[in-house]
Amino acid sequence: MQKEITGLTTVHQFILDKQKDFPYATGELSRLLRDIILSARIINREVNKAGLVDILGDHGSTNVQGEEVKKLDMRANDEFINTLRRGHECAAVISEEDEDINYLNETGHYIVAMDPLDGSSNIDVNVSIGTIFSIYRRISEVGTPITVEDCLQPGINQVAAGYILYGSSTMLVYTTGCGVHAFTLDLSIGEFCLSNQGITTPKNGKIYSVNEGNCNKFPEGVKNYIKYCQEENKEENRPYSSRYIGSFVADFHRNLMKGGIYIYPPTAKDLNGKLRLIYECNPMAFLVEQAGGRATDGTRRIMEIVPTSLHQRVPVFIGSENMVIKAEEFVKAEVEA
Fold it and tell me: Is the pLDDT of residue 1 over 50?
């Protein structure tokens, strides 16, 4: 049973306190988390003044995904990589914005996978965006060159994961495999302070989040599940409410706290879905499972999928356990039909 922490607690105090729960902890992971948090505070500053300086709009290039890069995307990417390089605990970074592995420090113990600024298409219209990160312990020997195998580990090997939500308030939500905890940035002292300890997501919810504009391109099983969500059934508290922001962090955070399901299925255009396994789906799957939820690609547990490439895409059904199970039933029924 976890000891509940009371009073004003900063994220750094919380990390140090929780480090005592691991008798063989040496501090490297704690220092790495502090480096990520430092970068998040800097990015938050840049996001908040985005309309005042020339960092809105397109960068004029496309990333490895073929997506238009925003100026703030590159600012965030550079900030995280530079901070992690100076911190020495990170051996390499996998980023949405870079085609190849960023090799940092051969003496580092960890691999960081990240989406530096999720939902960046919403930057110019002041909609909530976020950062997603995931941490793996390297497989190769410390002091030797990083290998591809270090970077293509399944999600079950994650030692920590989280996200930073830049919204009406700025929140850090993370897990190290011992529950999910949230911290809100107090601008008056410049610190993330504990606001939610041991988050548990509801087993059932009333929200489904999916881009219904693509519904005609969805598999029949997903279409049928959406119809199920829209049907009136008082005993099962349906219909559900449709809520879709288009920023994965924002949609996920709302459903984590209130209960719901987020779906990005395969489509005729994107047969493997659109979200990336390593630095989007795996960290969110780790978080939601730690909070009592569920994450699959419709048939397989997300965290058990072994990546074959850095930017591999997968369909995702993630959120409240019973809602994801029900969606899987519709997917299975289509396969068996």
Answer: no
* Pair 138, 111: CB distance under 8 Å: yes
Q: What is the pTM for the complete model shown? A: 0.92
Residue type, 260: G
For residue 151, count other CB atoms closer than 10 A to its CB.
23
Which pLDDT score, from 0 to 100, does residue 130 have? 94
Domain boundaries, the chain: 11-196, 207-336
| Cβ-proximal residues to 293 (8 Å cutoff; 6+ apart), any chain | 201, 256, 318, 319, 320, 321, 324
Segment holding 183, helix H or strand E? strand 180-186
Helix (H, G, I), strand (E, B) or coil at 242: strand
Alpha helices for the chain (secondary structure H)? 11-19, 28-48, 71-87, 148-151, 220-230, 248-258, 282-290, 321-336
Give the Å distances, CA to CA, from 33 to 14, 36, 160, 263: 12, 5, 9, 29
DSSP codes, 125-167: GT--EEEEEEEEE-SSPTTS---HHHHS--GGGEEEEEEEEES
Residue 65, pLDDT > 70, answer no
Task: Calculate ∠ Cα 59-309-213, nearest 5°.
Answer: 60
Other C-beta atoms lying within 10 Å of the C-beta of residue 233 = 9
CATH assignment of 207-336?
Answer: 3.40.190.80
- In this structure, what token pair is assigned to residue 337? 């039909």
Torsion angle of alpha carbons 32, 33, 36, 37, nearest 10°?
-140
Greatest Cα pair distance, the chain, in angstroms, is: 61
151 close to 310: Cβ distance less than 8 angstroms = yes
Residue whose tokens read 């059934």: 233
11-196 CATH pick, 2.60.120.10, 3.30.540.10, 1.20.210.10, 3.90.226.10 = 3.30.540.10
